[in-house]
């Protein structure tokens, strides 16, 4: 919520800086960048929440929480990078995609483990938690 409030504050600040009413500023590239970055972050947020919740519930909470915190940091990096030149936001965007993929794979592993337990009686939960706990620090590598 604080991150979304920060983004909205930046949009409002840039809107006031352009000396106009409303959020539509024709010809202001700085406002367009701030507004677009805010919209991009807002559109990615529901996907992030869904995979974070599923990964934490179905697989392991600690690696999912770590990946969630990393994603919030990366979104901040993406937003700030987007305010400069658009090419500066690419590392944050790619890093965010990698974190979303990690959370998605955690969710899939949790679902597969559930069906293995349900149909075959084999529980790999300890192995999955060990693997995800070992892999989650690799998210720090750019």
UniProtKB/TrEMBL annotation:
Keyword Transmembrane: yes
Pfam families given in the database record: MAPEG (PF01124)
Organism: Origma solitaria
Family annotation (PANTHER family): ARACHIDONATE 5-LIPOXYGENASE-ACTIVATING PROTEIN, MICROSOMAL GLUTATHIONE S-TRANSFERASE
Keyword Endoplasmic reticulum: yes
Record-level GO cellular component terms: endoplasmic reticulum membrane; nuclear membrane
Membrane topology value: Multi-pass membrane protein
Protein name as annotated: Arachidonate 5-lipoxygenase-activating protein
Its biological purpose: Required for leukotriene biosynthesis by ALOX5 (5-lipoxygenase). Anchors ALOX5 to the membrane. Binds arachidonic acid, and could play an essential role in the transfer of arachidonic acid to ALOX5. Binds to MK-886, a compound that blocks the biosynthesis of leukotrienes.
Keyword annotations: Endoplasmic reticulum, Leukotriene biosynthesis, Membrane, Nucleus, Transmembrane, Transmembrane helix
InterPro entries: 5_LipOase_AP, MAPEG, MAPEG-like_dom_sf, Membr-assoc_MAPEG
Localization of this protein: Endoplasmic reticulum membrane; Nucleus membrane
GO biological process, one term: leukotriene biosynthetic process
Lineage: Eukaryota, Metazoa, Chordata, Craniata, Vertebrata
Assembly: Homotrimer. Interacts with LTC4S and ALOX5.
Stretches that traverse the bilayer: 50-74, 95-116
Gene Ontology molecular function, alphabetical: enzyme activator activity; glutathione peroxidase activity; glutathione transferase activity; leukotriene-C4 synthase activity
């Amino acid at each position: 919520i604080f991150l979304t409030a920060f983004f909205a504050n930046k949009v409002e600040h840039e809107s006031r800086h352009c000396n106009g009413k409303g959020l539509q500023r024709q010809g202001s590239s700085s406002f367009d960048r701030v507004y677009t970055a805010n919209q991009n972050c807002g559109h990615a947020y529901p996907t992030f929440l869904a995979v974070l919740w599923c990964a934490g519930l179905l697989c392991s909470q600690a690696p999912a929480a770590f990946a969630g915190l990393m994603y919030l940091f990366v979104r901040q990096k993406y937003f700030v990078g987007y305010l400069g030149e658009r090419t500066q936001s690419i590392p944050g965007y790619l890093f965010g995609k990698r974190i979303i993929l990690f959370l998605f794979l955690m969710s899939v592993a949790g679902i597969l483990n559930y069906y293995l337990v349900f149909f075959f009686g084999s529980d790999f939960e300890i192995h999955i938690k060990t693997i995800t706990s070992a892999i989650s620090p690799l998210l720090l590598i750019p």
